[in-house]
Amino acid sequence: MHAMVSNPNLPLVRRLEAVGFRAWPASSVIYDGSWQVRLTGGHPGKRLNCIVPLDPSDSRDIAIRIEKAGKRFEAHGRPLLVRQTPLSPKPLIDFLVADGWERFEEVVTMTADLGHMTFPDTLDHLPTQDVGRYVDADIAVHGGDAALKPALAEIITGIKPPSGLFVIEDAAEGPLAAALCVQDNDLAGIMSLAVRADRRRQGLGIEILSSALRWARMRGARTAWLQVVAENAQALALYRKMGFEEAYRYAYWRKASA
Fold first, then answer.
1. Average pLDDT, stretch 36-46?
2. FRET pair for 222, CA 20 to 30 Å: which of 62, 87, 190, 258?
3. Please, what CATH class does the domain formed by 112-249 belong to?
4. Taking every annotated instance into account, which residue ranges of this chain make up the domain N-acetyltransferase (predicted)?
5. How many CB atoms lie within 10 A of CB 102?
6. pLDDT at position 3 over 60
7. Are 70 and 80 in contact (CB under 8 A)?
8. Which helix (H) or strand (E) holds 84?
9. 6 CB contacts (<8 Å, ≥6 apart)?
């Protein structure tokens, strides 16, 4: 019931998790043993507000550590979430099940060999240096809350590795698609990609994805990676078409409502 991919490549999982933390930085990160406790006061994103265990053998004092983290999340006004990856200790997951938690939102982490990737013959877009322009476009195409603009701009400004901010705009209609690519040495992570709801299935997704990956490959990246919600069949099909394959999955746990 709670199984992830069988026999995932744990060194790869560790590397992609570490790269992912740098590519989408939380404003507060503390460690309780090997559990990373991530909190971001200005943004409610789950990746930015969760406990992420990073050692399958670190399962001491689970109840005490969960309670302690819960108080920290409560002080930030955030729901307590645990992010389960193949690095999570099994006793922790057993504890969550017994304590009435529920598992939700499974996410597929995928990788692709950039060196052998063939790109479709689409218009190539160059990244913008204007964080505000990118953030406006990202919120518009996601249909997001404009009040989150300062927090999203702070997150993107806080990304240490080189970042490519890609936007497809129409003079009359405004932003149509947006993508964020973070290049961390030989790895290129697509941290966000969205096409406006009324302009999907028109090739814009593959156009902006190709632009981002071309940019990363030119800068020396050899492997691309991304994360997509397991239920998003359309996105999974697009990424598989581009040569991405599943590396591992993660999911979130929350205390079930009474």
1. 94
2. 87
3. alpha beta
4. 121-258
5. 12
6. no
7. yes
8. strand 81-84
9. none
Q: Write down how long the chain is.
A: 258
- Determine the average pLDDT of the residues in 105-112: 97
> What residue ranges do the domains of the chain occupy?
10-108+251-255, 112-249
Rounded CA gap, 187 and 113, in Å? 10
The most confident of 40-44, 200-204, 212-216, by mean pLDDT: 212-216
The DSSP H or E segment spanning 64 is: helix 62-75
Q: What is the pLDDT of residue 158?
A: 94
User: How far is residue 203's CA from residue 35's CA, in Å, rounded to a whole number?
Assistant: 41
C-alpha 236 chain-centroid distance: 15
CATH class of 10-108+251-255: alpha beta
Tell me the average pLDDT across 108-133.
92
Nearest to 185 by CA among 216, 226, 155, 227: 216
Residue-wise pLDDT for 7-19, tens only, equals 678 999 999 999 9
Tokens of 156: 């993107």
Query: Residue 170 and residue 143: Cα distance in Å, rounded?
Result: 17
Query: Running DSSP on this structure, what letter comes out for residue 161?
Result: S
pLDDT at residue 29, as a whole number? 97
pTM above 0.85, yes or no: yes
Rounded CA separation 138/46 (Å):
17
